[in-house]
Structure formats: C-alpha cells, structure tokens
Specification:
Elements: H1 2-7, H2 12-26, H3 31-42, E1 49-56, H4 57-60, E2 72-78, E3 81-87, E4 92-97, E5 103-107, E6 114-116, E7 123-126, E8 133-140, E9 143-147, E10 150-151
Parallel strand pairs: 1-9
Antiparallel strand pairs: 1-2, 2-3, 3-4, 4-7, 5-6, 5-8, 8-9, 8-10
Amino acid sequence: MDDALDGADFDADLLEEELRGAAAVLDPLPAELLQLAMDAYLLHDLDARVAELTFDSLVDAIPVRGVEDPPRMLTFQAGELTVDVEVTGDGLLGQLLPPQSARIEVLGGPGAARPLTVDAMGRFAADAPPSGPFALRLRTGGDVIVTEWLRA
C-alpha cells in the first residue's frame, strides 16, 4: 500500500479542504453551538488565572441514603483563594476563603453574565440556578480568576 502512495501525487492540504467541505455539507455545525462558542470566546479573559476544581460532589462525595436530590458541592482553588459553591434547584450559594471583597459574575451561555454581591464574610448567592454550562469570574483587587466551565 505504501508503494501506491509513493507513486501518487498526494496533497494532504487538498484532502483536508475536501473533507472539511464534505463535513460542512453532511454534518453542519448547529447555529446555536456556533453562537455559544463565540460567546464563550468573548467572555474569555486572557490575563485571568484559572481556579482548579479540587472537589465535585458528583464525583468525590459518598452518597447519603435517603437524600433524593442532594445539592452539588464544588470547591475551586486559585493560589491562596478557595471558592466553595453549592448548586441547588433553588439557586447558588458560595463563599470565598479567606473572606474578601470581590465582584463575582456567573457566566453561562449566550446570556449576559449575572453579577453577584459578596458580603463582608465572603458569601454570595444567586436566586436562580445556572442552566446549562456555567463558570464563575471573580475580580479581586487587580486579579481576575475564572473557574472551569461545568454543566449545572
């Protein structure tokens, strides 16, 4: 088979172009997905630090018998800052440790970012749970920190 390829005039760039054209016709990208990708890119902060997900109750917690709809508990770490978040059907609760002032926004899909108020104890809350993929963007002093994107 190698002999057949060696003798042929093979153009990988042309093949890639033809395959992209065929994929665009046979399996086009949904407009909603393209818009979501563009919106996510616009929200991207190039100078932001990414807070690492260190605990997710969907993966790390031991199930409790008798609890039908437990809240999702998340912990993010960025340097010395810890962000604890609880996601329920009623909304979102969280706390920054150590407590500090910050501007927090809930990022989610094509909708505008929803700002949250942080109190003196570092606590914040949202009245509505995130729908679909979401992330948090924190502005603390001169730092911008963004959590990983997660599905609610």
